[in-house]
Design brief:
Elements (H helix, E strand, L loop, with lengths): L27 H18 L4 H4 L7 E3 L2 E3 L5 H5 L4 H23 L7 H25 L12 H8 L9 E3 L4 E3 L6 H25 L10 H10 L1 H21 L4 H6 L3 H16 L2 H11 L2 H16 L10 H24 L6 H6 L2 H8 L1 H18 L7 H46 L7
Antiparallel strand pairs: 1-2, 3-4
Amino acid sequence: MSEVHAVAVPPDVVRPGDAPPDVERYRELDGLRALAVISVFLFHIVPGAPALFARGPDVSFELFGSTIVPPTRVFDYVFHLNVGVQVFFVLSGFLITSMYVRPWFAHEPTPEALPYAFRRAMRIFPAYGLVLFGGGVTWFGLGEIDFASPFAMIRHATLTYLNFPERWVAEFGGVDYGGLSVSWSLVAEVTFYAFVPFWMGALRWRTSRSGGASDPQAYRRAVTMAGGCIPVGVVCVFVFTYHTPWATEVPFGGLITVFGAGLVSLGAGMVLAVVVAGASPSTRQRLRALGERMGWWWGGAGLLFIVLAWPEFPYLQASSAQQTWQRLMQPVIATMLVAPLVLAPGADSIVQRALRHRSLVWIGTISYGVYLWHTVVIGKLLADHPIFDRGFWGASTVVGMAAAVTVLLAAASWYLVERPLLAWSRSRFARSKRRESSPTLADS
């Protein structure tokens, strides 16, 4: 699977302990993250398992003299399970932006540059390097992880290949980035991590002459600046879907193909973060009442998902128009899934209680590892145990094996690598702050 699926984005790599204390209330976001990574896993297993997904009744009916054929095959919907991509982007937009705007509106210090960058690096690179090199050169071989050149390996390892011309692969209808096929989305995450502090700096400058966060217009300006990312993202989507060869040949064209096209969902998450963080108590009550209408939000998202799946959509050979339709519809669906959870955290709806279930929260906790390992595992198992011509139960067995191995590797990654390093990175800067605040010999 060296081709790029213009789909998978990493599970949002902000853990509750990395965010401000009040963000830790959003436990159901881990449950949603689990559902999103499961959907990405199912999407990537689709090509090899027609026995599982090419099923469904043939249904049609007449309406106003026209024959209506609704999407009833599992295939019709699985092809759009990459909506989990946009869910992850909305979550990233919300959580990373919250780390800055919540303390800013509360007149508290925002994250310092060095600790922020160090913790983000610890969240991304150790687990990624484990898969890129450990998984690539040992048991799994190099089937999934290949590089165009030694220099390509370096820029993949450092996630800097956004700044280089990529390879246009017409037969896949997209860009082949080489390396670990899902790593392009880590580049988008890292770019967003760098973007938010600059965005926050622009917001500070924009409100500096009128009192900063105390300015009555600060809230509106922050919402406007966050929302401004969305139309930029829409433009990038059109450039990506209609002019990808051009976008990959110009300097920094990857900003369009990798990061820019994700700004629709990232911007939506940023807007949610600003709206929640800067709202007055009365506005916050109205927002909570709006968020508690869970059925309207998720029911509407389900209807839009059916509308999205209605037109025929070929796997990896979608036309520019079809890709544009998908890339503009999915952020709306993803935002509708995330919005009620952040507007009314801790609500007692059936959906939110289910999302807070320990099993889903656990999958959400290790979801970054699931995201990193799943295509490698799928590629290896399908190569050794092809299931294209197998029956339902044979295909189900191999898919279950892929899921079990992925979860085991992701759990090992979390408990042995990710969690210890994140705890160390937090304690490292906590000790530094204590040393800075403690008396010195000169002071005494």
